[in-house]
Amino acid sequence: MPASCLKSDILSHKEIFSGVYQMTCRFPGPKAPGQFFMVRGWQGYPLLSRPISVNDADEDTVTFVYEVRGQGTQLLSALRPGESVELTGPVGSGFPVEKLSGRVAVVAGGIGIAPLLYAAKSMKGCEAELFCGFRGKSYLVEAFAPYVSAVHVASDSGAEGHHGFVTDLLDAADFDAVITCGPEIMMKKVARACREAGVLCYVSMERHMACGIGACLGCTCKTLHGAKCVCKDGPVFLGEDVMIDA
Fold first, then answer.
1. Domains of the chain
2. Which of 128, 240, 115 minimizes the C-alpha distance to 175?
3. Mean pLDDT per 10-residue run, the chain (246 residues)?
């Protein structure tokens, strides 16, 4: 489905954790796990829309989970149900869930948990386990309950679960595939562990984006196959292709 741009009604919008919001909008048509939209809910400055990944979706709606990090997301967080946003998407290459089988580890770091919910929901015939790391308390974890057989939580502060890194909890050799999203340093550790274990790994990259459709080349990343646009060629890549210095 080619990306489209339209005004979308906000159906629900709530803060689910301090500074973390969940927003559901009306948007008909298919949305693949791992894809994202360029989202805009204001006029004038900031000039650029904000890329936000698909957290969940059905035939007629799309749900986003995002963290307030700057002026754009601050303006977005002030919108209420009944107001509208401008959505451009869905764009990008998502997780190839149809290629996954057997035991799959879903590894999240912080707000990187957002796109992994729809990915876990979309996997068929897999036994998935969630590994998630946070600075302090967790969020969104309970939404995975119908789609994973086990949940493993780590926190930097020790406020919940394992006191340390989420990568401490993962033994890649126990799985047939791993999908991950979060801080790049975390994903490098995951990709390295998968490479050493000979396990398939997909990572979802994050970059600042201007156009979101591969026209401006402002979100390139280095891969084994040359420079690629995260917005168009990704954001999901094979871990071994992009984590080349892991």
1. 4-91 (2.40.30.10), 97-206 (3.40.50.80)
2. 128
3. 82 98 96 96 89 97 97 96 96 95 98 98 97 97 98 97 97 98 96 96 88 78 87 91 73
